[in-house]
Design goal:
Elements: H1 4-13, E1 16-22, E2 28-34, E3 38-40, E4 43-49, H2 53-60, E5 63-71, E6 76-88, H3 91-97, E7 115-129, E8 132-137
Length: 142
């Protein structure tokens, strides 16, 4: 059985996160993003542009998913989490996840109005590994 510790350790080893949102017509949209900058319990924090299509979609519909995978030579593992995404403009969390070099994306620095934080709260998920799939509720994991 999968554990929260395994999920977090697995995610921290990846280089890319795939983030899913729902557009105005109800269709799923996926985007590759940098991995979460902070993981706290079942919450995952990403940085993005406030003006981005993804942030705008989450403001209208908070349903979201995140997906991570590792394709090894002999083993493939993927973990999808589904839940809700909030668009945060709080200065404290923006400062907390700010990284050196972010001014490439946000010219005005940590106070740039086009810089925001996406907070994903996982509710459930699925893991694929060794030709098996396991569905789980986050609350039920050890």
């Amino acid at each position: 059985m999968i554990t929260k510790e395994h999920i977090i350790a697995f995610i921290q080893k990846q280089k890319t996160a795939f983030v899913g949102s729902v557009d105005e017509d109800g269709f799923p949209n996926l985007k590759a993003m940098f991995v979460p900058r902070k993981i706290e319990g079942n919450c995952f924090y990403f940085s993005t542009n406030t003006s981005s299509m993804r942030a705008q979609q989450f403001m209208k519909n908070p349903k979201a998913s995140i997906y991570f995978y590792n394709r090894g030579r002999f083993k493939y593992e993927g973990i999808m989490l589904t839940g809700t995404m909030e668009v945060l403009q709080d200065d404290d969390i923006k400062r907390e996840i700010w990284q050196l070099g972010d001014t490439i994306y946000y010219k005005q620095g940590v106070t740039d109005p086009d810089y925001c934080v996406l907070k994903f709260t996982a509710l459930k998920g699925r893991q694929y590994c060794d030709l098996k799939t396991e569905a789980f509720n986050i609350e039920d994991l050890a």
